Amino acid sequence: MAIINENYLKLQAGYLFPEIGRRVSEFIEANPDKKVIKMGIGDVTQPLVPSVVKAFHEGVEEMAKAETFKGYGPEQGYAFLREAIAENSYKTRGIDISANDIFVSDGSKCDTGNIQEIFGNENKIAICDPVYPVYADTTVMAGKTGVCQTNGYYDGIIYMPCTKENGFIPELPTEIPDLIFLCYPNNPTGTVASKEELKKWVDFAIANKSIILYDAAYESFIQDDEIPHSIYEIEGAKKVAIEFRSFSKTAGFTGTRCAYTVIPEELVAYDAEGKAHPVKPLWNRRQSTKFNGVSYPVQKAAASIFTEEGKNEVKKVIAYYMENARIMRESLQDAGYEVFGGENAPYVWVKTKNNTKSWDFFDKVLNEANVVGTPGSGFGPSGEGYFRFSAFADRENVLEAMERIKNLS
Ligand SMILES: *Cc1c(COP(=O)(O)O)cnc(C)c1O
């Protein structure tokens, strides 16, 4: 008799985006003449930049000739890409990360989920609320939790509410976690963490022998020079933090797939006897066994964003999205909303008026303004009463959507 992994039965139905889709389809069916503007899903809209397209083509051409053809590449990623990342993403900010500590992958979604596998199920996991749903769901799949309670919290996870009262930066939990998921710039709140705030977390992890799983998928959207792009800008972080980064939002790779995870040599975790073991060899073993690398043309395309031309082109696309975010922030403020994020991240997080529930606001915005956003409660119970607008849209649509929202009753 085949037995399933019963942890999967604990998962709540993937409710958020299917439910948004259902309500939007229903609306469009009933109102075929209305133009619906979608600012809901966190997917990019602008095409790959010319440098990326050129490198991608060249990679394919190399694969087409016997002399330059490539079969399996290194599971950790090609040296040219790992070195370009170490040089451009870290060294330029004064961070010493070796190319050998970088593992190229096909996505941060996979990496933030898969990383659970190299840590025992006894680990207590701390997760922000609201946040990217992958962290909690993969913790459940791994068997590190109990069942889901009626308030939407899984037994066994340490939830850290992030609200306007704490500036969307969680307080240090009273129950000591072993693994701590942090995501800054944050999805969905669009807020960032200062050096002081991150230092508090690194010191906490050092004191408790915990590990921080730092998702920096949106670091390239940071505009303020004082905001750290990497957890490794904090002293001591290399001993206690793993960092995840992705080309998805940075360079429009959501459909092309390339990301990377950094596990510094000095990062350790412990066995039952309390003996320290380096974590990097475990991840290397995991990736070498279960992953065969990202395709050569994609890695070549990814590396092209570190050329002078590539950097400038990518910067322009990011500036385009951040100008959208600025327009959204100002328009929503003018319309009387309390607005967070959107200054160093492509998400604008809005407090609904009069404590309207997130889903009621969703229906109002859809029905009256024909604009689709994301209900904050879908990212966690503390997101109730908030709403996320994504800046990954065409300018024309942003302007029209904001005009319509200003005219809401
Ligand atoms: C989009 C996103 C990612 C990127 O995932 P990929 O699998 O690399 O596309 C990672 N973390 C967060 C919080 C995101 O929103």
What would you say this structure looks like, in words?
The protein has a seven-stranded mixed beta sheet with strand order 2-8-7-6-5-3-4, sandwiched between helices. Helices cover 36% and strands 15% of the residues. The protein is of the alpha/beta class. α5 runs parallel beside α6 (134-141) and α11 (308-334) runs parallel beside α13. The chain is built from 13 helices and 15 strands. The chain folds into two domains: 6-47 and 309-406, Alpha-Beta Complex (Aspartate Aminotransferase, domain 1); 53-306, 3-Layer(aba) Sandwich (Aspartate Aminotransferase, domain 2). The N and C termini lie far apart (59 Å). The structure holds pyridoxal-5'-phosphate. The site of pyridoxal-5'-phosphate has 14 residues, from α5 and α8. This is LL-diaminopimelate aminotransferase. Pyridoxal 5'-phosphate binds at residues 72, 108-109, 132, 187, 218, 246-248, 257, 292.
